[in-house]
Amino acid sequence: MKTNITAGWIILLLALPLYAVEVGQPAPDINGVTLEGDTLQLSHLQGKVVLIDFWASWCTPCKQAMPFFVEFYNRHQSDDFVLLSINIDKKEKNMKTFLDSLEPAPTFPILWDQQATLPPRYELAAMPTTYFIDKKGIVQSIHTGFNPSEKAEYESTLQRLLKDDNQ
What we know:
It is built from 5 helices and 7 strands. With 167 residues, it is an alpha/beta fold. A hairpin with a 5-residue loop joins strand 1 (31-33) and strand 2 (39-41).
């Protein structure tokens, strides 16, 4: 069966905001417990550059992105930088099976948001979606999906935010 998309639907889709959170706005606070059992609150990370990565084990681009994020974090974990990973799998087993397959294993905080309560606060348009948050808690960059050609952009964004003395 062929589906026709009417002009009205296209206009409606184009009128929808791509992000509820925009560059230059404060990042909505995130509260949760990491897989290690530590309580984490985004607002308590002010003073550090934060990359928030929303992902799921069923998401093909997420599977491509996660090894990069592990490597990226391992290179920069001694900087004033935190990578906060938020998984939205319904089944913990799926998340853990995927994480167990990674070599090296992630050492950054991972929150399991089984009920997917956090994505609506950010109105995600795609998976994965990543946000660079500056030292003052302001969104500085938003990436939807993952393309290996953007790795240099992640690096330059992090370096710029780490060096920004106005934060």
